Amino acid sequence: MVEAVKDNRAEGRYELQTSGGVAFIDYRRDGNVVTMLHAEVPAAVRAGGVGSRLVRGALDLVRGEGGKVIPRCPFVAAYIGKHPDAQDLLAEPRPLNRTGAR
Predict the structure, then answer these.
(1) Residue 4 CB partners (closer than 8 Å, separation 6+)
(2) Which regions of the chain are under pLDDT 50?
């Protein structure tokens, strides 16, 4: 069974429980804008697509709340740059290229 990404508001991070530990994205909220600051995936599961599942799940949670995202984390920015379907979530609507650069 695949675990769902959860919003741990007390810690200010999105979390995904994995077999290697907790993967997470630290964030800061300002109203309905979520600034994603840093993502971390346990070393034991880094090559398994866990980071992408984590970002997709976090973005789905933001979308479900009607929020917007500022991707300060390079991994999150790169993910959004590779997935045009996520770019409508950008609070700063300048398109990202595939590496996450503007």
Answers:
(1) 16, 57
(2) 1
Q: How far apart are the first and last CA of the chain?
A: 36
Domain boundaries, the chain: 6-89
Parallel/antiparallel/unpaired status of strands 68-71 and 21-30: unpaired
- Residue 94: other Cβ atoms inside 10 A: 7
The tokens describing 72, both together, are: 């300060």
Q: Both tokens of residue 16?
A: 């995904």
What does the block give as tokens for 65?
Answer: 């709340």
Query: Topology of domain 6-89, per CATH?
Result: Aminopeptidase (3.40.630)
Q: Which helix (H) or strand (E) holds 24?
A: strand 21-30
How far apart, in whole angstroms, are the C-alpha atoms of residue 2 and residue 87?
A: 25
